[in-house]
Amino acid sequence: MHDTKELEGLGIPSVFVATTEFVSASDAQSKSLGFDATPVYTEHPIQDRTDEEMVAIADKVLDEIVAKLVA
Length: 71
Hints:
It is a single chain. The protein has helices at 2-9, 23-33, 51-70, and strands at residues 16-19, 39-42. Strands 1-2 form a two-stranded parallel sheet. The model has no long low-confidence stretch (mean pLDDT 96). It is globular and about 35 Å long. The chain has one domain (2-70). The chain has three helices and two strands.
């Protein structure tokens, strides 16, 4: 979240990616930083996933990431 805020401050469109388990934590961090971060959430959990499963998870959110970056 700190990196996202810094990049946005430099005029570089940014999103952060986290799993759905961290929705409330990321909302709290965003409020704490006084920054309206742009999130993209993936399914949870991701630990112990195979490389192929991680690619599939990333593929599911790729269009959303791109859309938020170019909006």
